[in-house]
Amino acid sequence: MTIRFASFLGDNGFEFYRRVVACVGEAAGLATEMVADTSPGLDAMFAQGMIDGAFGCGLPYVWKAAEPTPSVRLLAAPVLPAARYADRPIYFADVIVRRDSRFHSLQDLRGVAFAYNQSASFSGYVLPCYHWLTQGEILHQFFGKMVETGSHANSMDWVEGGRADCAAIDSVVLEMEMLQRPARADIFRVVTTAGPASMPPVIASARLDPETHARLREALTQMHTTERGQAVLTQGGVSRFAVVKDTDYDDIRRIYRAVEAGALA
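^ that's the sequence the OP posted. Answer follows.
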């Protein structure tokens, strides 16, 4: 049996996640592979048995965890090395603008064009909505225009090309982008940050037997202790994978409920 994974996170992370999956499979003594085509979507791919695991956003996880019989279980979540992550599996939504723009604060963005990847994205949409609510603002009323781009990669391209003035980008995706394309550090500037929130987790199908699940989790969370695993993690700008539990994602549940209530208000 081959354990198949897919990534529903930033496009620039695919090669890193592919290497993680290969390393985990070798360490766990399991056949693993990364699936490139994710067009059916996370729900359909799990339901149809097309994948056994996924690197995905925290919001779809909490939705699936709320099913009468949850179809997925947590494996682990990455921890990044920068000081702001405090050696914990957390992340942020960084709101970027062009470095040469006139925008230097949240209030400077009033009335401009905001790009977001999709409304089901926690970092690209829900967390910014919550952040603006904490400032007494409603996102749709604050910006002059909101455009759905389909991906963080597209959102970054839209800001760089001037089609949008700002965009909220998953901090993991943004840091990977700077690692892979250092020239973009001269193009973008972070004008405000939302978060932290619990890190997008690695999840596995509940169909996997407990032993296989345990072997995958062990291999993931021990990657940083092996020479090969550490090399893969370093290339991706990740320190390690940490064990996470369902209650760690209560912050996402709370934030999502607050955004729903705020939008209705």
